[in-house]
């Protein structure tokens, strides 16, 4: 332990900055802090404290700062409505029609159904999709497919989501898809997931089917990559 502490002290001595450098770094920190505070007064919605979001998500404070700056650049008011969300999302899929999928995705992000997505909503969902457990990702995906939020997925809902994904990918899907491909895809999914053949898929059925079938998991992973 003494050797470790001695090495640490030596490094501190070698790397110690002059006091004027410390003052400069402190000045930069204070300036950025003031700029952030001024920027926050210009928005309609002020997000929760970064410490609270750090505790609620799988992002570090620094990552949250970067994400917030990007969110604020696209949405200066601090919130995004559905129309703006569609416009932003369409930029990533210029060869297809992303409007319907963006519609469904927006409502999955808008968990309080207020008609707008706040920064907290955005990073909470992003945290699950990027760094959540398999179970958390599947629950979030189930919520996306459950369009009417009745706690079940019917075949029409699944068809709407899958078709929206294919429409978004556009003519550059490979291999080139036949017109009835989405329906075939949904029929296969639903046959495997609807365990008791009652015409609906519950959350438990969805979780069980996805985790026991590698093909379904791979397909869902492909769909999650466009979120």
Descriptive account of the structure:
With 227 residues, this protein is mainly alpha-helical. It folds into two domains: 49-132, EF-hand (Recoverin, domain 1); 148-226, Recoverin, domain 1 (Orthogonal Bundle). 67% of the residues lie in helices and 4% in strands. It has twelve helices and four strands, in the order H-H-H-H-E-H-H-E-H-H-E-H-H-E-H-H. The protein has helices at 2-15, 19-41, 50-56, 61-74, 82-90, 99-109, 119-131, 134-145, 155-169, 181-193, 203-212, 214-224, and strands at residues 79-81, 116-118, 153-154, 200-201. The strands form two sheets. It has a two-stranded antiparallel sheet. Helix 11 (203-212) packs across helix 12. It starts with a helix and ends with a helix. Mean pLDDT is 79; it is low at 1-20 and 38-43. Residues 97-132, 133-168, 181-216 form the EF-hand domain. Pfam families: EF-hand_7. It comes from Bos indicus x Bos taurus. Keywords: Calcium, Cell membrane, Ion channel, Ion transport, Membrane, Metal-binding, Potassium, Potassium channel, Potassium transport, Repeat, Transport, Voltage-gated channel. Belongs to the recoverin family.
Estimate percent helicity.
Answer: 55-70%
Gyration radius, to the nearest Å? 23 Å
Distance between the termini: 49 Å
| Strand percentage | under 5%
- The strand order across the widest sheet is 1-2
